[in-house]
């Protein structure tokens, strides 16, 4: 079987979907051949390349894997990974053209292809609700790279100095978009922070072109927005944080929480979408719409060293159990089953 990867994700800004596609493709190694645009193909140009150019470059007997929620409708010998159905279920979070395109594309694509990979049981359930036959959908969970790991105190000190951060801080990582629920997190922090003088909140992530904006006026005092950072600095920022907070309203999996746990950071996360599947029993879980609950969770983790230590150990164990090599093997099983 000749496996080809839809490489439209290459060159895009690194979010959870691009991380999944990049790391899974790397772990597949020489079992897969990557097909990428010859020039930058973002936005409309990327869609046109995917729908019209990519099918022409694919050998007629090749199997295509599209790892990033979209793929060419002309290709039936295809496996597509669906991370979530947020554009279909919550279109108000997205710019209207983006939401309209994916609400049209995804139902047709999952009907057309040979198999669909879901990143969680949550996403699988949403696909079944859309009408995709159960036998067509396989759950293969994402993993985490070994480069996400604890670092020395000197490295933590250096990254705090480089970004002018306090000695203690709560970290959030993700695109500045409505479903990340950052406004509620900032409101909760406004009330919690007076009890923890000298502790800050740091948010890493840029503004995604596909998403509607969030109210920048809601940013509380003591919150630092770093924008996008390098992967090298991201590892250091994870490891330097006292607490990681993922308070999303909706996630297909929750990869950033897994990365934070791999770096030895205790996590506060919401019972939303596939996040509980990502963290298992290794994080403190709260309701995403419960603002007092978010406040209480932040206060508890910042004040309770014993709980932080327990979650730190559980998180490291959880992260060790989910590796990209296992993801690649699970994907290969699907490819072999439908591509023979």
Please provide a written account of the structure.
With 340 residues, this protein is of the alpha/beta class. The chain folds into two domains: 3-143 and 323-339, Rossmann fold (3-Layer(aba) Sandwich); 153-320, 3-Layer(aba) Sandwich (Rossmann fold), CATH 3.40.50. It contains 13 helices and twelve strands. It has helices at 16-28, 43-57, 86-89, 96-112, 121-130, 153-162, 182-192, 231-240, 255-262, 275-279, 291-303, 305-320, 324-339; strands at 3-6, 32-35, 63-66, 78-82, 115-118, 137-139, 168-173, 199-204, 223-227, 243-246, 267-270, 284-286. A six-stranded parallel sheet has the order 2-1-3-4-5-6, sandwiched between helices. It has a six-stranded parallel sheet with strand order 9-8-7-10-11-12, with helices on both faces. β7, α7 (182-192) and β8 form a beta-alpha-beta unit. α1 (16-28) packs across α13 (324-339) and α9 (255-262) crosses α12.
């Amino acid at each position: 079987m000749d496996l080809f990867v839809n490489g439209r994700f290459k060159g895009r800004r690194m979010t959870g979907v691009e991380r999944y596609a990049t790391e899974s493709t790397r772990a597949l190694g020489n079992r897969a051949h990557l097909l990428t645009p010859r020039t930058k193909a973002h936005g409309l140009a990327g869609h046109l390349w995917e729908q019209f150019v990519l099918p022409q470059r694919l050998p007629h007997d090749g199997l295509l894997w599209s790892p990033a929620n979209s793929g060419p409708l002309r290709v039936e010998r295809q496996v597509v990974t669906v991370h979530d159905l947020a554009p279909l279920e919550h279109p108000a979070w997205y710019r209207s053209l983006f939401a309209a395109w994916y609400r049209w594309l995804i139902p047709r694509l999952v009907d057309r292809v040979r198999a669909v990979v879901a990143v969680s049981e949550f996403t699988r359930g949403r696909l079944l609700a859309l009408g995709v036959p159960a036998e067509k959908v396989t759950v293969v969970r994402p993993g985490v790279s070994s480069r996400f790991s604890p670092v020395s105190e000197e490295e933590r000190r250096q990254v705090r100095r480089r970004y002018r951060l306090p000695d203690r801080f709560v970290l959030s990582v993700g695109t500045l978009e409505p479903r990340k629920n950052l406004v509620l997190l900032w409101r909760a922090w406004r009330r919690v922070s007076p009890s923890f003088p000298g502790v800050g909140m740091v948010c890493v992530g840029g503004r995604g072109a596909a998403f509607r904006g969030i109210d920048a006026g809601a940013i509380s005092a003591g919150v630092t927005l770093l924008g996008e950072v390098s992967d090298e600095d991201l590892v250091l920022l994870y490891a330097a944080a006292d607490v990681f907070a993922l308070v999303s309203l909706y996630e297909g999996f929750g990869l950033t929480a897994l990365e934070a746990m791999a770096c030895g950071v205790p996590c506060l996360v919401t019972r939303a979408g596939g996040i509980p599947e990502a963290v298992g029993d290794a994080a403190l879980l709260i309701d995403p719409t419960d603002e007092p609950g978010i406040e209480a969770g932040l206060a508890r983790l910042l004040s309770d060293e014993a709980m932080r230590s327990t979650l730190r150990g559980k998180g490291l164990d959880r992260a060790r159990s989910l590796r990209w090599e296992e993801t690649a093997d699970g994907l290969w099983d699907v490819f072999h089953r439908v591509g023979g």
